[in-house]
What we know:
single chain; alpha/beta; two-stranded antiparallel sheet
Amino acid sequence: AKELLSKLxxxxxxxxxxxxxxCTGPKSAICVRNELTFLDLNVQQIEHLNKVxxxxxPLVLMNSFNTDEDTNKLLRKYSQIKVxxxxxxxxxxxxxxxxxxxxxxTSFGPDSSDAWYPPGHGDVYQSFFNSGLLEEFIKQxxxxxxxxxxxxxxxxxxxxxxxxLLDESNGPAPEFVMEVTDKTRADVKGGPxxxxxxxxx
Length: 201
């Protein structure tokens, strides 16, 4: 297990605000159980994993321009915890004026923050690369990245999946594995998977 986990990085998508839950600020700062926030629980999960297996799986947060400042303030309280925590920002894209089809933004400053938007989860790959962290982790021998939303407490590191990815006895390992579930009536956000020309996309 130690050898498998030494090749792993955990990324939590932390760009969302808690507006859909009736809160302001990063969703990760919402208290969910025993005065613990989503961020607290994620840090505890990685700390437990590292302690049990004697490893140093890093926790990486993909913030947005909406959550970065508040998240970095929150991270100060974990300075004594044995978890390597890194952050990077996802991109920011300009909102477009419907009539002129031109960007609404007149500057990059905080006075025009409403004229920009974070593009969402699909930006994780390019932003992770642009941050320089991907290159740093590859140099450390990391091979796989586990990605999930910061508020998905059921999404935890599963050694069976990691074994499946790293065990080449069944042929070449897949480059990408995704867990999906059927949508329910409560699932109003998020993109669906589609079967297009016989391929799942």
